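This part of the workshop introduces the protein records we will be handling. As an example, a complete record with its sequence and its C-alpha cells follows.
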Amino acid sequence: MPAIRRKRRKNAPSASLFELLAMTFLGRVVLVALVAILVLGVSLLITGDDLDRFLPVVGVEILVALGAYGAVYLVRRTRSS
C-alpha cells in the first residue's frame, strides 16, 4: 500500500507554535516563565522537601542559565559583526 502524501498549500504557515511565540515579546515572556516553572518543578522533584539541597541546586541552575545566555549573546554579536 503506497504512503498517502498530503498536499501542502502554498500559503500554509509552516511555523510551529514555539516559533510563533518566539516572535513576540509577550510570547518570549511566556516561554521564559514556562521554562522557569519546568526547571523549578524538576528541582523540587529531585530535592524533595529538603530546602538545604533545593537552594544550592537552584543557584547552580541560575548560574548555568546566565552562562548560556552570555554565550548565545556573544555568538550572535560576533556573527553580526
Observations:
- The first helix runs from residue 17 to 22.
